[in-house]
Amino acid sequence: MKNISLITLAPMLLSGAAFAQEAAADDAAGTNPVADAFANAGTIGWIIVALSVVSVALIIENFVTIKREKLAPPDLIEEVEALFDEENFQEAMDLCEAERNYFTNIVQAGLGKLGHSFETIQAGVREMEDEESVKLFQKIGWLSLISASAPMMGLLGTVSGMFKTFGDIAAAGGSVSPAQLAGGIKLALVTTIFGLIVALPTGAFFFTFRNKVVRTTIEVNAIAEDLFERFRKKAA
């Protein structure tokens, strides 16, 4: 995960360094492209900036919560397995109710079906696996939405900027100076840049988290289902 994150962030860091060098050079010449970009971002540009803030918050939150240790703590798995080996299922149920996470929610669903056939227990376990997996995918799905929305917002800004530019041309009767068109053109370019800057890393992190969710859920589901295999043997 750390390697993937570094690979994802490396181009951003390099491009940021290059942009900073260019900004420093422009500062020496009396201009600041970063300040100029924000000054010409318009309403749509600032909406994209807000999306970037939300994206960063979601990425940090997912880094903290979507972990194997959070979804299925190893010591908790060992404790539940020990209770199953002792056939102390009521205490296992109480433990699952007290420690709510991906793994314990699945185990609790299976324990709630005890006394029924193995097929019923298995169905309960797998239904909860699907439900918990959907919750995780919905959780990271916001990153996919931002990744798709940011460039579209940038495109909307581009269209708005060009509309303003052609409006200025029409109002001036076709005879305008480049300075009169600069505002609309800057709006078009800045919103496009902002949209892409937000979309590219957000999309990369979405796919990183998605792969981690798939890998972790498969592993934890296998552990949970293996706990209930003993009831198949008893039924046989």
Explain what the structure shows:
This protein has helices at about 1-30, 35-40, 40-65, 70, 75-85, 90-100, 100-110, 120-170, 180-225, 230-235. The protein has two domains: about 1-40; about 40-235, no CATH class. With about 240 residues, it is mostly helical.
Keywords:
236 residues; mainly alpha; 2 domains; 10 helices
* DSSP summary, beta strand count: 0
Low-pLDDT stretches? 1-30
Instruction: Output mean pLDDT.
Output: 81
Head-to-tail CA distance between termini? 42 Å
N-to-C series of helices and strands: HHHHHHHHHH
Give the proportion of residues in helices.
Answer: over 70%
When the domains are counted, the total is 2
> What is the gyration radius calculated from CA atoms?
27 Å
Sum up the overall morphology in one term.
rod-shaped
Strand fraction equals under 5%
Number of helices, counting only DSSP H or I runs of 4 residues or more: 10
Structural class assignment: mainly alpha
Describe, in short, the structure shown.
The protein is mainly α and 236 residues long. The chain has helices at residues 2-28, 33-39, 42-65, 68-71, 74-85, 89-98, 102-111, 118-171, 178-227, 229-235.
Topology:
Elements (H helix, E strand, L loop, with lengths): L1 H27 L4 H7 L2 H24 L2 H4 L2 H12 L3 H10 L3 H10 L6 H54 L6 H50 L1 H7 L1
Helix pairs in contact: 1-9, 3-8, 3-9, 5-6, 6-7, 7-8, 7-9, 8-9
